[in-house]
Request: fold
Amino acid sequence: MNMTKKGDIAMSLNLVEAVTLCEVGPRDGLQNEKQILTVEEKVELIDGMAEAGFPVIEVGSFVSPKAVPQMANTDDVYRAIHRKDGVEYRSLIANLKGVERAAACGCRKVKLNVSASKAHNLANLNCTPAESVAGFAACCDAAKANDIAISGSISMAFGSPWDRQIPIGDVKEIVDAYLAVGIDEISLSDASGMAFPTQVYDICTEMAKSYPQVNWWLHFHNTRGLGIANIMAGMQAGFTRFDTSFAGVGGCPFVPGAAGNVATEDVIHMCDEAGVKTGIDLDKAMAVSRRLVGILGHATDSYLLRAGKASDLIRELPTGQIKNQTEIKK
Ligand code: ZN
Reply:
């Protein structure tokens, strides 16, 4: 049997050839940090990730500054970033006011969110999912009128602390509601960190079969160390769009002990090793993540920042032979 080498696509795993990653750290990651970053610091990080090759970056959110103080300067950040051609700079919104703020600062892509859990939606947005859905149409009309693209996400799609398993029929109802208001780019989010690979594969396979017209994103938090495995399962089901967070920063205010999204550099490294194209320069992305850790002044959940790349371990012997792992450990 021929062994898979670095950069080969493992035929037996049936992986996709290329993926599109979104850096969500500036929004999902930083909103859980106590330290409020300045506009200049955020611009440096966002420009750095665009330079590294990220095709999509979630810059911030247009929500109540009282509810999420870290995101209060999102409008100013949009005005200050050095936009790179071909990069999509998206932002999270909660309502019509969010579309208005997006239009005013030149944001061209917004994302709505609803929780798949009725109980969580009440806690998060103070209304039921059905009431959230009723508000989507007005946001979509306003976005269209302002030439702003709009997408949607479904948090807790893989389970919630209030419901455990969410019936797939409940998730489909929300997908139907998004489609009804003209949104066909939808993210399935595991904010609670309850997703596991076999479940991810099954749900993704079912969703892709039921809704071939939808452009899907997957959004995994690494709360129980399954983020990378869940991304692999998504890839095996043919999904190609994934959110990641620089240095793995983040959490979720509604979930005890929640970790951030799976670390950007860990995902790029895994894809590089597996031969799945990301179009992103790993070294440049790692430099941005290191800079973030420097700004925050505390360690984060990133394997790569702690251990470096696998290829960094490989050393040349005088004879040209490669040392094996046991020799390196000595
Ligand atoms: Zn999240």
About this structure: Strands lie at 20-23, 56-62, 88-93, 109-115, 149-155, 185-190, 215-220, 241-244. Residues 17-329 form a domain with the TIM Barrel fold (CATH 3.20.20.70). The first helix runs from residue 25 to 29. The chain has a mean pLDDT of 91.
